[in-house]
Amino acid sequence: MALALESGFVSTLGHNTAAISAYAGVGLVLFVAGFYVVDLATPGRLISVIRQERNPNATALATAAMVAVGLIVAASIYGAEGNLGEGLIATVVYGVVGIVVQAIAMLVFNLLIGVKISGLCQEEKLEPAALLLAATYVMIGLVTGVSVI
Fold first, then answer.
1. Could you give the C-alpha distances from 74 to 44, 55, 108, 112, 142, in angstroms and in order?
2. How does pLDDT run across 66-110, given as a tens digit for each residue?
3. Largest CB tally within 10 Å, which of 14, 29, 46, 61?
């Protein structure tokens, strides 16, 4: 039995594989950047607070930040409509904007509402304020993502 491939299949496969790799690389950089934004507001190293101290508040905030960045990256890819170069640039720009807005949200919650991430990350039990801030992160990612589609 012979395997018949459509004309241009190999070219399309190569292009799409390159696009996946490029978007994955950009996404990974943005995920790391988003993680470190939360890390800056956390007393001690965030990964230690999560792994060793097993702090549920720090985990909730870091998880929400990653979900938010993922929403932005996915929406940017979708909005690129197959244009790899423009899509990558847009993903970087929108991702950075989303991360900056998350940082602003941390400041707003700290200054106006009195929710301090440093205090939350020292609490041993999951605090309602951490869930509120985590939901805010996800909503920022969703709003940012939908606005670029």
1. 31, 28, 26, 31, 10
2. 999 999 989 988 888 888 999 999 999 999 998 888 888 888 877
3. 61
CB atoms within 10 A of CB 66: 19
* Cα gap 122→49, rounded to integer Å: 9
What integer best gives the mean pLDDT of the chain? 89
Entry pTM: 0.83
Q: Is 95 left (phi over 0), alpha (psi -120 to 50) or beta?
A: alpha
- The two structure tokens encoding residue 135: 């939901």
The span from the CA of 96 to the CA of 121, in Å, is: 24
Tell me, rounded to whole angstroms, the distance of Cα 26 from its chain centroid.
11
User: Which token pair is 40?
Assistant: 């800056």
For 17, the 3-state DSSP assignment is helix
User: Do residues 126 and 58 make contact, with C-beta atoms less than 8 angstroms apart?
Assistant: no
